[in-house]
């Protein structure tokens, strides 16, 4: 069940935006996406929209500078789509406040948090109150873009909100959502058949970036290179991991493309012969085989399946 706010502020906002777009049916929605996977999703559902991604796949979305160019984009946005679950807490509120754009303030109909549409793993109520805790999210792990089933739920929620905000294109968005969701469900079935050999695979990884991917595929993360969330691997922590995993080495050591791979390389070289370091994308890229959501999943599976047994 989609959780769409029903308070009076939200209802008035939807009505106001609906009237504005109805008065100018030729107006294309301007969408500010906090991460490139959300930009890619909006382009699938509403290709007429003008979409700007605040970040790229080579950046850590926890730590982004609220640059003037992002502030300008936020000022112009009709809609903003972000992850939520405190992923962007270090920079999104500043952009919202300084933009002065009422359409994308917290609680406004044009401000969408993808986390509203899914359940999250590993919630930590009360956490995140101290900078010494690192990148801890009390709501739960925000990296759910790497679970295709949760992506389906997000896409449905986003499609419904876009239909509310752009009634002139309601039918077109509905058709695109239905076609995309049917194709996506078929891809999920194909991916799961293809990935069957990965079930039970043991990996070490940095952070919990790929936790949803591991859960979907049945992969076990046996070690985290970070001594605490968001903190780079230390020599002492890596030494402890080496002692813990040497008897039964992981098949691979995994980091995201935006993470420094030196700690992973140190562990892989010592934990067992031939253990590879995989730098995997966690979001879509501007070009190449991971430039689409489907291509991102294809690449992730291909890279994991290529790891020697």
Automatic annotation (TrEMBL):
One GO biological process term: metal ion transport
Keywords of this entry: Signal
GO MF, any single term: metal ion binding
Signal peptide (residue range): 1-28
Pfam families according to UniProt: ZnuA (PF01297)
Entry protein name: Zinc ABC transporter substrate-binding protein
């Amino acid at each position: 069940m989609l959780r769409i706010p029903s308070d009076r502020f939200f209802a008035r906002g939807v009505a106001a935006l609906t009237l504005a777009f109805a008065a100018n049916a030729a107006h294309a929605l301007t969408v500010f996406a906090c991460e490139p996977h959300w930009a890619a999703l909006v382009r699938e559902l509403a290709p007429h929209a003008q979409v700007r991604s605040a970040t790229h796949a080579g950046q850590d979305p926890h730590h982004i500078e609220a640059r003037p160019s992002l502030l300008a984009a936020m000022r112009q946005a009709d809609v903003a789509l972000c992850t939520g679950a405190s992923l962007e807490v270090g920079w999104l509120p500043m952009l919202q406040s300084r933009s002065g754009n009422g359409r994308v303030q917290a609680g406004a109909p044009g401000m969408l948090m993808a986390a509203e549409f899914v359940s999250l793993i590993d919630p930590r109520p009360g956490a995140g109150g101290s900078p010494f805790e690192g990148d801890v999210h009390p709501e739960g792990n925000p990296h759910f873009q790497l679970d295709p089933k949760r992506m389906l739920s997000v896409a449905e929620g986003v499609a419904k909100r876009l239909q509310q905000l752009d009634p002139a294109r309601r039918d077109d968005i509905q058709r695109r959502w239905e076609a995309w969701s049917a194709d996506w469900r078929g891809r999920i079935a194909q991916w799961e058949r293809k990935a069957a050999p990965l079930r039970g695979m043991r990996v070490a990884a940095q952070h919990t970036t790929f936790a949803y991917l591991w859960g979907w595929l049945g992969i076990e993360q046996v070690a985290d290179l970070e001594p605490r969330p968001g903190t780079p691997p230390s020599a002492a922590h890596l030494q402890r991991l080496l002692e813990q995993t040497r008897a039964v080495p992981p098949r691979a050591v995994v980091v995201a493309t935006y993470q420094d791979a030196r700690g992973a390389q140190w562990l892989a070289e010592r934990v067992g012969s031939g253990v590879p370091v995989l730098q995997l994308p966690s979001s879509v890229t501007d070009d190449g085989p991971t430039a689409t959501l489907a291509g991102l999943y294809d690449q992730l599976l291909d890279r994991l399946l290529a790891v020697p047994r």
